Amino acid sequence: MGIKLDQGFSQELVSELDQELGSKLGGFAPDLYLETRMDSIDQEMLEAAKIALSSAYAPYSSFLVGAAILGSDNKIYSGCNVENAAYPLGNCAETSAIAAMVSGGCTTIKRILTIGSGHEAVTPCGGCRQRLREFSSHETPVICVGIEEKSEPLFTTIEQLLPNSFGPRFLKVDK
Predict the structure, then answer these.
(1) Confidence band (pLDDT; 50, 70, 90) for 71?
(2) Could you tell me which residues come within 8 angstroms of residue 54 by beta carbon, excluding any fewer than 6 positions away?
(3) CATH of span 3-171
(4) Torsions phi, psi for 140 (to 5 deg)
(5) Rounded Cα gap, residues 136 and 142, in angstroms
(6) In whole angstroms, what is the distance from residue 147 CA to residue 34 CA?
(7) Angle ∠(80,141,95) on CA atoms, nearest 5
(8) What are the residue ranges of helices labelled H in 135-174?
(9) Of these residues, 44, 47, 83, 94, which one is catalytic?
(10) In whole angstroms, how large is the CA radius of gyration of the chain?
(11) Annotated catalytic, 94?
(12) Domain assignments of the chain as residue spans, ordered by start
């Protein structure tokens, strides 16, 4: 199920989550300082990713990640990381967001945002870069954010994260 862009989030809920996350993670920049560099859709995606991050299940690494995807249907789909004692069985936040998007009936990503408990911008892992590539184009924008106020956001694209990627076009057969 996705969040429609026109629904937005209550600022009270986001502020409450910021305070809660700040106590869990040792400081969360309430409005981040990104507002001047992000448009309104990015801000809604950031809020959705923060909410997802607050639900992350990471008892082994304590590394919380939230992701938000803007689908071609103009809905925001979010996900969090979910660890498992058998490490390969966990889900990354991006994987969870992709699953929510596909479950919602959408299969094309227009924009991606990740936020994690790192000291700098948290980028998708290699496996998630490939998963994101499956549903996006080389030009799809990606914004990566760390939770600390001093961390610089990374504004990039799928092509920059995964150059010369293997994608669906390689598997299409001409008939």
Answers:
(1) very high
(2) 17, 20, 21, 64, 66, 80
(3) 3.40.140.10
(4) -60, 125
(5) 11
(6) 11
(7) 25
(8) 158-161
(9) 94
(10) 16
(11) yes
(12) 3-171
